[in-house]
Amino acid sequence: MYETITPQEIQAGRQALLGGNVGGSTNLIVRDVQGSTVYDMEGNAYLDCTSQAWSMNIGLKHPKVIKAVQEQAAMFSHIRTSFDTVPKLLLAKKLTELAPGNLKKVAFALHGGNAIEGAMKIALRNKDNSTKFITMYDGYHGRTFATMNMCWPHPNNIFLNWMNSAVRVPQAYCYRCPFNREYGSCGLECANFIDMAVNKAVDGPPAALIMETIQGNGGMIEYPKEFYQAIRQICDRHAMVLIWDEIQTGFGRPGTYFSSERYDTVPDIIVFGKALGGGYPIAGMLVNENLKSFAPGDQSFTFAHFPISMAASVATLEVMEEENICGQFREKGIYLTKRLKQMQEKYEIIGDVRGPGLMIGIELVKDRKTKEPFCKAEQYMVSEGLKRGLMLGGNKYLDMGNVVKIKPPAVVTYDELDKVLTIFEGLIKDCEAMRNK
Ligand SMILES: Cc1ncc(COP(=O)(O)O)c(C=O)c1O
């Protein structure tokens, strides 16, 4: 089909698509992928710093995952959730071994939003009289009806009225502190505010607080370590379930399997997705074994037990160990961040460079002092970058859209990173010129 598709079929196919996806279409038709590179139908190469929605941590096409998938596909593909399969059991065992603390129970889904909803259901099962959820400003947890209500509300979002909204509280976004304080002397005012909000701004006891450990769509925001620990204490004090959305941070990108390793604290539920399947759809949750589980039928989906994705996930976890994926993310992240911070000294429009690992966000501003967001620069860099063979991530969040993301797979080479930096610097120079016009 790749060889025979006609221009008419391409046009008809495009016209038939309903749309609704983030980012719109780029007109790029993917023909092949390799390592960290995507090839289009004309054979043009693009260095992928999006890891295809931050999902392909071990590379865009890993031979070990292909082999596992081919073997499993030749045996059987879909099995009802009532039966077990070897990939399901091996994956459940491995994940609970990797999980921090006593998160020793696991459930699976096919999409992150679906898994977040599962975690919300567990919270409601455990907090009988609670119906409220607390989430962070600028958080992102998916596009199902319930998860849309857990996110930053996109302007004019007509779907929000349909369900209960979450109570949103400020996150520790130190570059633009919601309280105009400086980290170090702020006494974590944001955490104190959250504590107060749980008491005063919520009708009745909340069931859970849901947060990403590093805000991805929200603009690549990692919080100070004490913030995570303060949130844990707030949840304990108010008997709320703490749900960490690790759909982007899980399985290596910041340099660890899970965020507990970085912040020395453990949530009650971790929701995972994206990278685990090595390119095959899988998501799920790791749950504190002391929490009450689902009742029969609470969380049942036809394809939630998908042995092909599970075999791919077992292979992905093996690759993570064999190729020291976390270490690669850490080391390459240090290299790239250091070079970007050097660039920051030269170019006024680079307001902030944020890591960790290869979870990098560069916040663009028109002026370092006023921090006025430079959204046009972000749009230019993403679209012009593509023309120059570089896939960069952008963001529509923070009411701004001025953060460019560099999040390639861990297997990206140092030569490729140098190429990324060269193209990136060229784009920054263009934007500096735009600003001065
Ligand atoms: C942090 C976070 N949570 C939830 C989701 C939703 O996952 P999915 O698109 O698989 O439903 C995403 C997807 O981008 C995400 O980044």
Largest sheet: 7 strands, mixed
Structurally, the number of domains stands at: 2
* Shape annotation: globular
Number of helical runs? 13
- Reading off the top of the CATH hierarchy, the class of the largest domain is best stated as Alpha Beta
Measured between the Cα atoms of the first and last residue, the distance is: 48 Å
- CATH-derived architecture of the largest domain: 3-Layer(aba) Sandwich
* Element order: H for helix, E for strand: HEEEHHHEHEHEHEEEHEHEEHHEEHEEH
Estimate the helix proportion, in percent.
Answer: 25-40%
CATH topology of the largest domain: Aspartate Aminotransferase, domain 2
How many beta-strand elements? 16
Determine the CATH superfamily of the largest domain.
Type I PLP-dependent aspartate aminotransferase-like (Major domain)
The radius of gyration over CA amounts to 22 Å
**Helix/sheet category:** alpha/beta
List the bound ligands.
pyridoxal-5'-phosphate
